[in-house]
Amino acid sequence: MRVVVVGASGNIGTALLEQLEQEVAVTQIDAVARRSPRQQSEAQVRWHQADITADDLDPIFRGADAVVHLAWLFQPTHRPSDTWANNAVGTARLLDAVERCHVKALVVSSSVAAYSPRRDEEPVDETWPTHGASTAAYAREKAYVERLLDAFEARVTHCTVTRLRPAFVFHRRTATQQRRLFMGPLVPGSLVRPGLIPILPTPAGLLLQTVHSNDVGRAFAAALLAKTPGSFNVCADGVVTPPQLAELFKARQTTVPPRLARAALRAAWTAHAVPANPELLDALLAVPMMSNERAKAAWAWAPTVSATDALREFLEGLRQGEGHPTPPLEPETSGPLRAQEFGTGVGNSA
């Protein structure tokens, strides 16, 4: 089985490559990324440098048994036309290439943020509407990709389409990348040291549903091998509550009105102090809690890391400045003293 993984150098992509290398049914892996890793030690993996917004994907897709689409831009939030070009238009180009090359199976990474806002705290299944959790570009674009997939499935009957909707995905080695994407260069890793912050303010309504990257990689591999059509929620069992979050910091938790948290984030984002905009906070507070029962039943899959432990591992990686030797994940991408982050403008660069 020959598999093409587009967006292979990021959080989910690196976990999936490691999983696919263990699968005897997978004989060749073609990994596609905008920036190829400097170290390419995986014997089974052949790397291709390509941009889904501009490059011809047909030579890579031709003859593939399956394509996995993970390519996504979270930034720049100050230039949403850039993320739209990659996430929406780039996905449309990728789907056209899958159709032209007669690929038989397509697995796409959607997100919990594609879901419409929750009404309560009860877990929802995959039939919950997917119109986006907020007006954040990330949520809008994930919802738009769901519509692109609806049209693709209706038009291209020879291809089995599987959509995975992960919760917030964490791993120790993704800490530096996620700090760059959401916190920016001004946040020191030492800030998350337990006991340093005496009080942790959290906006009312905050519930965190997480999942470990390795568990997501296993889910994507299972979806590939089973070629199961449809949508699947991928998350750890349980959620992280504000008191549990405060316990990770060894701090006292206090609840603040969402409008205050939003105003503070807007001021910081407008000043280019942080890359995450207030609409992302809106999405965080609005996403529904997901049920993972369908994935468990379909593939005999189950999360091996709890929601709290996945977040704990990320925080440990953040304190230690950990990463992985691919351009999106390696700490060196930030430059000395994070100069590259400052030089490109917080929230102004992918």
Keywords:
single chain; 350 residues; alpha/beta; Rossmann fold; 2 domains; seven-stranded parallel sheet; 11 strands
State the gist of this model.
With 350 residues, the protein is α/β, with parallel strands linked by helices.
Characterize the overall form: globular
Gyration radius over CA: 19 Å
Per CATH, which architecture of the largest domain?
Answer: 3-Layer(aba) Sandwich
CATH fold node name of the largest domain:
Rossmann fold
What is the name of the CATH superfamily of the largest domain? NAD(P)-binding Rossmann-like Domain
Number of helices: 12
The total of beta strands comes to: 11
Q: What is the averaged pLDDT score?
A: 95
Number of domains: 2
CATH class of the largest domain: Alpha Beta
- Please list the strands of the largest sheet in the order they lie side by side: 3-2-1-4-5-6-10
Helix content: 25-40%
- How do the helices and strands follow one another from N- to C-terminus? EHEEHEHEHEEHEEHEHEHHHHH
The chain-level structural class is alpha/beta
Distance between the termini: 33 Å
Topology diagram in text:
Elements: E1 2-6, H1 11-20, E2 28-33, E3 45-49, H2 58-61, E4 66-69, H3 80-100, E5 105-109, H4 137-155, E6 160-166, E7 168-170, H5 175-183, E8 199-203, E9 210-212, H6 213-226, E10 230-234, H7 242-249, E11 252-256, H8 258-270, H9 278-286, H10 293-299, H11 307-320, H12 339-344
